[in-house]
Structures are given as structure tokens and as C-alpha cells.
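# step 3/5: fold
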Amino acid sequence: MRKLMAVLLAALAVLGPRATEAKDLAMARAVKVTTLSTMLADEGLGEWGYSALVEVDGRKVLFDSGANPDVVLHNARAMGIDLSDVEDVIISHFHDDHTGGLMTLRKALMAKNPKSLSRLHVGEGIFAPRFEKDGKPANTFPMLADAFRASGGQVIVHAVPTEIVPGAWLTGPVPRHHAETNWNPGLMMDEGGKRVADYLPEDSSLVMPTAQGSVIVTGCGHAGIMNIADAAQAMTGNEPLLAVIGGVHLFAKPDAVLVETAARLKGLRYLLGGHCTGIEATVRLRELLALDRHTAVVAAVGSRFVLGKGIDAGMIAGWAG
């Protein structure tokens, strides 16, 4: 029996973070999400990119790293946020507006804490080759991962929902039940012996079940926010949706898509729409979801969602009325 237990414990150590298909996830008690990179900015720098600091029950995760190498580091310092104690970082998908700051952050923070951003979590499929229409290779993430490993970091690939820190679950690749095409055309990938449009199969979001409902953080939502919502509810046993935070790739979509999306998200209480969500799309979703200027907001650098308090939009996106 002791030998068997030793084998099982060794296997669990190899598996790393806990993977699950169960629906009895432990509830997060405290959740705070702070925007570090998006287009609008109260302080610091705005850019076409996304990053957020996610704090769950005293543990921290960096979700994406922005586009330009120095922006997230600069913005965190401008807001007085110390990222050196963050050991887990998620890259939602391979696009460089979510990966650009990773190595700058890792190298700068390692000077204070060698374990800073030492565990990189990604969805299965992120290493798949992508191509321009002329056949030119277009996925630079493998080179970034090599540099990350060379710095002493560990890259962890997730094929199923996995608990990254207690109370926060990475979806891994999201099943596509709804025919959402929430990505820009142009890149291609190989699938089933054919070259097809790159639909970002690795796109992953973070889900935090709470007593008030699930909080979702997404980088671009290339999997489609309806599909991501379905995945969150499948993970949590149909917990209601409390908040959607981050990029939801709807800025160029027609109104019919926004109407369909809002119907699927009915009951959502908070929307902090950053990056590729789009200003007009956020305002339209606010109307369709029967939310208001306090509960459906265009994200800015420094804007926050806090469980139990709601959205602190900041100045540029806030409303004093």
C-alpha cells in the first residue's frame, strides 16, 4: 500500500495543477481584476493589446502581457503595483498583442524574485504553425517559449480545464458549439490535411466560480464569448454568469451578432469590455443586457472589478452621475 501511495503521489506531482471535468469547483471568496493594458488609459500608457492582474483569495495571476515590450511594466509601476510576487502567467493565445511584454516583465521582475512569472500557462494548440496567405510562417510563439524556457521558466500546456491557483480555472481550448467567428481573417493553419482559416484553437479564458456567479477573464475571446460562457457553465454546473472582463472580439460585428450574444449572456451583471470588445459594441451590449454606465463599462488602464463591489471604471471611462 505504501508503494502504491508513493506511485500515486509521484503521478500527481508530474501532472502539476489539478485538471478537472467535474462541476463541484470550490468557490473563490475574493476576486479583483485590474486592467494593465488596453487602449484607453487614465494613467500609464494605452496600446492595442491586453493584460490584467487577477487576484484570487490572496494569490495572483498575470493574464496576458500586452503588446509593446515595456507597457505593462510601465503601467504597473505607474499604478504602484508590484508584480514581482506573481509566479503564474497566462497567455490566452499566440497573437503578439498579448505576448509582447512577457520577456521584458520576466527579466525585470526576476531581479527581485527569481520565481516571478516562472510558470507560463497556455492552451493546447498554441504551438501549431500558422501561415500568411502567401505561405509565410506567422507563429512566433515557439521562439518566445524557447526564450522563456532559457530564462528558467516552465511552459505548461493545458488541454482541459485546469486550476491555476485555488479558485481560478483556465478553460484550455474551448468547444465551439456556437458558430462564432471572433477573429480577424488573414492567417491560415493546417487541419485534417487542408489549409483552413486560423480559428485560434488554443484560445483560453480564466473562470472563477463565486457565490454570486462566475467571473470570466478573456484576452480576445477568439473562441467566442457565447462558447466561453457555455464552457464556464459546463465547468461550474450552470453557475450564473456574474462578470465578463477583458477583450471580447466584437468591435467589427453587425448588430445581429450583438443581439444574439446578449441573448446568450442574459443575466450577466457586469461587463468590463477592454481591447477588441469595441466602444460601440460595449455600449450596445449594455443596452441589450439592461445594464447601465456603472455595470457595463469600456475598460481603461487602471480600471478594476472587485467581487462584492463591482466596477471601478476610473476617470476616462467612469461616470459621476
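# step 4/5: annotate
The first strand starts at residue 31 and ends at 37.
# step 5/5: archive (pending)
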